[in-house]
Amino acid sequence: MRIAIYDLDNTLTRRATFTPFLAFAARRIAPWRLILLPIWVLMMLGYRAGLFDRTTLKTYGMRLMLGKASVEMLQRVGHEFASTRANNDFFMPAVLALLDEDRRNGAHVVIATAAFDFYALAFADLLLIETVIGSRWDGRVISGGNCYGETKLRRVQSWAKAEGLSLDSATIRFVSDSFADAPLLELADEPIFVSSSASKRARAKARGWRVISAD
Question: Are residues 9 and 22 in the same domain?
Fold first, then answer.
């Protein structure tokens, strides 16, 4: 069996999605919260300075910009968000070509992403991908932690077990732009790294990963 797993942000899409989603959703749900965007920027700087981890950052961002919005409302806004982005050359052509190749080869295609599943599912629908493994928001916290790094690997393993699939016997392709995804890239039979950075491409090649340009 062939399994093809794709990251979302900066891999299938040309740009990150979380901050644009926060602004988009706040505008739809509670426009007054847009005045809080400078606080969100400061929070991101705090994360980069090591003051808190990604799970904490994203949790604070959701509470700051979207308050107590229901998951059902976030799903509706998520579909609207994905639709508006898809009409603006938002997907990465080189990665879409890999996706077409995987479909021709009969692969089971999966998106595994740190993005919240309530809008990652909407992007997956546009790309005709049925399986999404993403971060899960229950209205208060990120249930199960941010789907990133080692957590993403564990989530993929749990999904495969639940589906009765053996990752050991499958041929796995994993496509990502992030070194944080090294655990899953190292698991894959065909790791593919996406980047426009010459230094990152060199690092990825040194690890034996196939590299494609994000340009």
Answer: no
